[in-house]
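Usage

Read records sequentially. Each one opens with the input sequence:
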Amino acid sequence: MSDHHESGWDAARLPSFNAADVELIERRCLHEGFFRLDEVHFRHRLFEGGWSPPTVREVHVRHDAVGVLLYDVERDCVALVEQVRAGALGDPESPWKLEIVAGLVEAGESAAEVARREAMEEAGCEVSELIELPTYYPSPGACSERVTLFCALVDSKGLGGVHGLEEEHEDIRVHVLPFKRAWELLQAGRLDNAMCLIAFYWLAAERASLRARG
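and closes with the structure output:
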């Protein structure tokens, strides 16, 4: 018998607790701008029984987000976007980042609707098919945001240039690259954000089957 079974480990019962096992004591807003920062007071059940003492954490409250990897099956190319990123202003190499298309989910929108809208706004690209990838928390220890990823099958002919919404102060350049070149950039650490890494590793695993469709 494995050590996991001896210690009571059971995959069917993971995670061990649910939302009913947390008591929210207080939540108050510390700052509200484009994003919000809350101070949260709570306690929770402990693995060895009983309850934790009151715990205080700051939580970065964000809209859920969508990431879209634009992939041209016929040409075996991807389209990436480049723009300056405020969170990377201290990056020793450059605050301009190569990323997949992305956007925030507004009230009443589905993730798929956001994916198609952002593909057009950021890359001038119409999507023929959306393949939904996993949804994940980028940083659940401090941030409420959940991200849904898609691979969008597109025709990359004619894509390029500068895009983005003027009212959102977006200045976005589109790059169409052969998959192998984009993979080299990823391996060299140039595609250094979670959306890119997760989407590209998914595409690396599924690329052959996508190309075999035709």
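Summary fields computed downstream for this record:
- The helical segments are 3-6, 111-123, 179-187, 194-212.
- The chain has four helices and eleven strands.
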